[in-house]
Write a structure and sequence with these properties.
680 residues, alpha+beta, Immunoglobulin-like, C8orf32 fold, Jelly Rolls, 3 domains, 8-stranded mixed beta sheet, 39% strand
Length: 680
């Protein structure tokens, strides 16, 4: 029996040790009996139906009153070893916008045979409403349950709960049976969702011979963390025995809000996930499935689609000969090789560690995914006798790399690392208008793993070398009597601002940018728009020069009001929430400057110029300065906002929010120009 169990190609079967949870969940609290919640299916509290708004979040369109999942293991002769997941959801509908939550779709794997096919069974559900003060339930009609196969190997169970309206409570439950050959681990359990959760609970019972490691992530602590030794019956005597039953719960979990300055929601949502460790059947076998980073490094190096591609470079010899003849300096060779691949190959928008058709074919076709382009770059640099190695990483939308979880599948991107005279350069040739060393924002996600040709791999920080940089200068004369400002407007786009500008406009006709500039400042009349350094020198800023006229229809004879930060000012605070439990990730630093010089005609003065102001973030992380002064007949305005750090903790949130708020306030203050008494 054990041989049959093992013979079903277990990719990974796991158990997790209590010690692991003791370390991971050290901040968790065990709920007292008075705080516990163990409802019965179909028993709906009348108060839940009378609720018109959720006290914890008055804006919520719905709330999970109960979100429950339980996993146990079983064995049968048809499917072999399987996991059974029981799901139970109870949801209060507070707004009509949440009525679609009564339409439930459950995806499952629909493999070619029973050992590779999930089943969805034991589907039950009801909708509950108050009628004449009484709780009335309308059960799910089993005839309404539909099973579909939208694609090869994929299935879907769909059903609609009946009689749902604003104020209803819907409840449903089902069981999913997953053979180990379909998935070797329980799905991660999230204690947060798009709506608040009054109670979210996960249970799992693990036989002693299955070894799982787990990882608790997110920013909401557990309210319940319990474990208990229990008898385990999986359906076959030789595998029965004992195990550990675990119970985890979070109460009053807020809805996850996709706030500004985050990577991807999965990096922040509180959840438990599972990773490979060991199968240890007494008297039969002990086998480790857990990986180390050294295993991951070796696997990538041995893979024909990754390390194998770096051992094929004959197609690059003409390029090597051309670059080698042009320069013997390693840094110049690096720049030439980077520019060659950057211009020769077009990125098709796809990520991944493997090229679909191989690196050589992508090179010949002059386009490919990130792997095809950057592995070509690495091979070319190695051909030029430059120390260059791949760095695998995870993009911001894919999720952060966690050092404590060695997994190959967390990586979906590759860049190049070059070392010349002790200095490291990180290169990505997928962006045609980026200078060497400037990585795309999607790749700025904390850690990458460098894989040398010889020796052990190591983690490196993948940090931006540039900021969002923009300098705007307005030089104008004011005619208060007519309410007209007339002058010149100059913009300098640097860093990632320049990169975004070039990606959007460099291949477009000049009129495209002209139209966008005018639509952004509809009150201005533009003339003589000139763009400099469109793509000629990627290391330098893009420059825009133009003339403009602005007319204020509300100007009076003696008083003239205007906002001196005529463009580029901070109009709104990007941080809206009053509190935040998640850290801030700005991706890049910020460098935003504005200079205004406004000439006044004789007889006019600036009334009550605002005081100069300087606002600092703690530890020199940022600086905002604003100054207005009149020198003879010229009003001079200087504003600079710098943010040097890209990451801030939740404890620093209020400082950063206030920093931006003060900038918004100063940039919205108007100036008053008055005709002096002596000139009247």
């Amino acid at each position: 029996m054990i041989q049959c169990f093992i013979g079903r190609t277990l990719p990974c079967v796991r158990r997790w040790y209590a010690q692991v949870f003791t370390l991971l969940l050290i901040s968790s609290l065990t709920a007292s009996a008075q705080e516990d919640f163990k409802p019965k299916f179909g028993n709906i509290d009348k108060a839940a139906l009378e609720m018109t708004a959720y006290p914890g979040d008055s804006t919520a369109e719905a709330v999970y009153l109960y979100d429950f999942g339980e996993v146990y293991f079983k064995y049968d002769t048809y499917r072999g070893f399987s996991m059974v997941m029981k799901c139970w959801a109870r949801i209060k509908i507070l707004k009509e916008s949440a009525l679609d939550r009564a339409s439930v779709s459950i995806p499952f794997v629909d493999g070619s045979n029973v050992e590779r096919r999930e089943t969805i069974e034991e589907i039950r559900g009801s909708t509950y409403n108050l009628e004449s003060g009484q709780v009335v339930g309308t059960p799910l009609d089993r005839k309404s349950i539909k099973r579909e196969r939208p694609a090869e190997g994929r299935g879907m169970v769909n059903f609609n709960l009946p009689n749902v309206k604003k104020g209803s409570v819907i409840e449903y439950t089902y069981e999913r049976t997953t053979p180990i050959n379909v998935s070797d681990r329980p799905d991660p359990w999230s204690f947060q969702g798009s709506i608040p959760m009054k109670w979210s609970e996960f249970r799992i019972t693990i036989p002693d011979y299955l070894v799982y490691n787990t990882h608790m992530s997110g920013y909401i602590p557990l309210d319940i963390s319990e474990q208990e030794r229990v008898p385990v019956n999986v359906g076959v005597t030789k595998l029965d025995g004992h195990g550990v039953a675990y119970r985890f719960a979070v109460k009053d979990s807020p809805a996850f809000v996709n706030e500004p300055y985050i990577t991807t929601p999965s990096d922040y949502i509180s959840k438990i996930s599972f990773e490979l460790s060991t199968i240890a059947v007494p008297g039969e076998m002990i086998k480790n499935y857990s990986q180390t980073w050294e295993n991951v490094d070796k696997s990538l190096n041995d893979m024909s689609w990754f390390g194998g591609e770096l051992r094929k470079s004959s197609h690059l010899k003409p390029a090597r000969q051309e670059i080698a003849a042009a320069s013997a300096d390693p840094l110049e060779r690096m720049n030439l090789a980077y520019a060659y691949i950057q211009q020769h190959m077009k990125w098709n928008g796809n990520n991944g560690l493997a090229s679909a058709d191989g690196v050589k074919k992508a090179f010949d076709n002059k386009q490919g995914n990130v792997s095809a382009i950057n592995l070509s770059l690495i091979s070319l640099l190695r051909e030029l006798d430059i120390e260059c190695n791949p760095v695998v990483l995870s993009t911001r939308s894919h999720g952060r790399v966690r050092e404590q979880i060695p997994l190959m599948e967390i990586f979906n991107y590759v860049i190049a690392s070059v070392e010349i005279n002790g200095k490291e350069y990180l290169l990505d040739a997928t962006q045609r208008y980026a200078r060497p060393g400037m990585l795309p924002e999607r790749a700025l996600n904390g850690l990458g793993r460098l894989l040398p040709r010889n020796g052990r791999g190591r983690f490196i920080e993948v940090k931006p070398q540039e900021s969002d940089s923009k300098l705007e200068i307005v030089t104008a004369s004011i005619d208060p009597d007519k309410g007209i400002l007339k002058g010149s407007y100059n913009i300098s786009y640097g860093g990632y601002e320049a990169l975004r500008w070039r990606e959007k406009y460099s291949t477009e006709p000049d009129d495209k940018y002209h139209v966008d500039l005018k639509s952004g400042l509809p009150e201005w009349k533009f003339e003589n728009i000139v763009v400099k350094n469109k793509v000629e020198s990627l290391a330098d800023a893009v420059g825009v020069n133009c003339d403009f006229v602005f007319e204020d229809q509300n100007a009076s004879e003696d008083l003239f009001y205007f906002n001196p930060v005529m463009t580029g000012g901070w109009k709104a605070n990007p941080l809206k929430s009053s509190d935040r439990i998640y850290p801030l990730d700005l991706t890049t630093g910020i460098s935003s400057s504005y200079i205004g010089n406004f000439s006044l005609p004789a007889g006019y003065v600036l009334v009550d110029p605002p005081k100069a102001e300087v606002i600092l973030l703690p530890e020199k992380a940022g600086r905002f300065s604003y100054q207005v002064r009149q020198v003879e007949n010229v009003i001079q305005v200087h504003s600079t906002l710098l943010v040097n750090r890209t990451n801030f903790s939740s404890e620093e949130y209020h400082d950063v929010k206030e920093f931006f708020e003060r900038a918004v306030k100063k940039h919205s203050e108007p100036l008053v120009i008055r005709k002096s008494t002596a000139s009247k």
